[in-house]
Specification:
Number of domains of chain B: 2
Largest interface: A-B, 18 and 24 residues
Shape of chain B: globular
CATH superfamily of the largest domain in chain B: P-loop containing nucleotide triphosphate hydrolases
Number of helices of chain B: 8
Radius of gyration of chain B: 18 Å
Largest sheet of chain B: 6 strands, mixed
CATH class of the largest domain in chain A: Mainly Alpha
Oligomer: heterodimer
CATH architecture of the largest domain in chain A: Orthogonal Bundle
Structural class of chain B: alpha/beta
Number of helices of chain A: 10
CATH topology of the largest domain in chain B: Rossmann fold
Strand content of chain A: under 5%
Helix content of chain A: over 70%
Helix content of chain B: 25-40%
Number of strands of chain B: 10
Number of strands of chain A: 0
Distance between the termini of chain B: 34 Å
Structural class of chain A: mainly alpha
Largest sheet of chain A: none
Order of helices and strands of chain A: HHHHHHHHHH
Chain lengths: ~240, ~240
């Protein structure tokens, strides 16, 4: 095991041990702050309840990622090919991120209902921005000398995009995707808090109302695992795709 | 032949080329040598159409044209190999972009790999081989352009002495075996004297031809040749005088 990993695991272990000791020594009840051991017990023993909700949240996040990719990739290409489009769209892109997702969540629930559509859109709104911005910056960062080489070879925009710009921008794309997937759950969960019948966010609200703080923490644990899993998946995909680095 | 007359290029108030004249004989090897920042690379950028000229005429084989970007192959100091493509795929780029028959092009590229000592490295990525081999691969790519005029912008300057010597032999091969018309920029007077049929010594900005030498001796040449030693001393003195002004 590498040193950074040992340090990382050691840090987590230290926090959990301290947390556990404080709860035990001060006798803090579980409905205020449950012990890590109690949270893990609930996360495992209540898996039958947590799993269907996690499945719904995961589905919302995954569809959100797909939709954001379908928007972000063509949008960045168009903005790169036509800087005037970038100038026209940039204020809207920034505005879409400046407005807190909490503010638009109730509207989306009103417009799209209590089903997964509003949560998918919430996740997509959060994810597409880092992907779009990073991909566009990746295209722009391509060395002028390579562009000239392709120009002299007589390559048109799409051939240059396919053979040069796209691959050049891939590290930027994956950087944006990593940021996107790690915050993707935020959009979905906020949507579920505002109005849903399923999902980990819905379960958290329901459990909180019943003072089942241990279940709230168990849902958070599952959410964290989901975000971490997505991060690891994107990281391994990056390693498989970018073989030249 | 390539004929350039009264070529003028200005960047704002800075005049880089002013009524610049140049003749590159067909199937000859012309080398430009001059102080750093004298405008040699700007000349190439104008010739290839990367930047537009302010005035003057450019003609290739008697036909006037805005630039010779589509008529020439261009090799630079940096090899500009795409790190995600194998050496063979890098060499095949011009063929792929111009829509050539890929079976024939692959056969030609493999022949060139053999000629230039790259056999066995076809599937390697550029990051896995030495600088000299990368530059040889860039030379293969330049040959795959299938254009008679070849512009070389200090292609060997980043290499060590031994690799440089072997690539100089390959450049001579390029001229004799592949019937190319070569125009090269270098800072190395010895390199110019070993390779060129015609050496043009250039002034500082705005760039002018200070002196022109025709070298008719057979190749490969020896630097111990008294005539070459005399020319070398003369050119060095001329360039030093130019730098003092």
């Amino acid at each position: 095991m590498s040193w950074p990993r040992i340090v990382s695991l050691g840090g987590i272990l230290f926090i959990l041990t301290t947390w556990e000791s404080i709860c035990r020594s001060l006798g803090i009840p579980d409905f205020i702050l449950p012990r890590p051991s109690a949270i893990i017990t609930v996360a495992v023993s209540q898996a039958a309840i947590l799993l269907p909700h996690a499945g719904v949240t995961a589905l919302e996040v995954l569809i959100g990622i797909l939709i954001s990719l379908m928007i972000a990739i063509p949008l960045s290409i168009v903005m790169f090919a036509h800087p005037s489009v970038e100038n026209a769209i940039a204020p809207f892109l920034v505005a879409s991120q400046a407005v807190p997702v909490f503010a638009i969540a109730p509207l989306l629930v009103v417009w799209l209902g209590y089903g997964i559509a509003s949560k998918v859109l919430m996740a997509a709104v959060i994810i597409f921005f880092p992907i779009t911005v990073n991909l566009l910056e990746g295209f722009k960062s391509c060395d002028q000398e390579y562009r000239v080489l392709f120009q002299l070879m007589g390559a048109g925009f799409w051939k240059t995009m396919r053979m040069l710009y796209w691959r050049w921008a891939l590290p930027h794309f994956f950087a944006g995707l990593k940021v996107g997937v790690s915050v993707a759950t935020i959009g979905a969960v906020i949507g579920e808090w505002v109005g849903a019948q399923q999902g980990l966010g819905y379960l958290m609200i329901q459990s909180n109302a019943r003072l089942r703080v241990d279940m709230v923490f168990a849902a958070i644990l599952w959410l964290s695992a989901m975000g971490l899993g997505l991060w690891v998946f994107v990281g391994s995909l990056e390693k498989r795709v970018i073989t030249w680095k | 032949m390539l004929q350039v007359s009264r070529l003028t290029k200005r960047f704002g108030d800075l005049s880089v080329l002013e009524d610049f004249d140049l003749t590159v004989p067909r199937k000859g090897f012309t080398i430009l040598i001059g102080p750093s920042g004298c405008g040699k690379s700007t000349l190439f950028n104008v010739l290839t159409g990367v930047v537009s000229k302010n005035d003057g005429e450019i003609s290739w084989l008697g036909k006037p044209m805005l630039h010779v970007g589509k008529k020439s192959a261009y090799m630079q100091q940096k090899d500009l190999l795409l790190p995600w493509f194998s050496l063979l795929d890098n060499a095949l780029l011009p063929a792929r972009i111009s829509g050539q028959d890929m079976i024939a092009a692959t056969g030609k590229a493999l022949g060139l790999f053999k000629r230039l000592g790259l056999v066995g490295f076809e599937t390697y990525l550029p990051g896995e081989i030495s600088g000299g081999m990368r530059q040889r691969c860039a030379l293969v790519r330049t040959l795959m352009f299938e254009r008679e005029l070849v512009l070389l912008d200090e292609p060997l300057s980043a290499l060590d002495a031994i690799t440089r010597r072997s690539l100089q032999s390959l450049l001579l091969l390029l001229q004799s075996e592949f019937d190319k018309s070569l125009l090269m920029i270098t800072h190395d007077i010895e390199e110019a004297l070993l390779l060129a049929d015609q050496v043009l010594v250039l002034s500082r900005l705005p760039m002018k031809v200070l002196e022109q030498f025709s070298l008719n001796g057979p190749k490969p040449r020896r630097l111990s040749d008294p005539l070459l030693i005399e020319i070398k001393e003369h050119v060095l003195q001329r360039l030093q005088e130019e730098l003092k002004i």
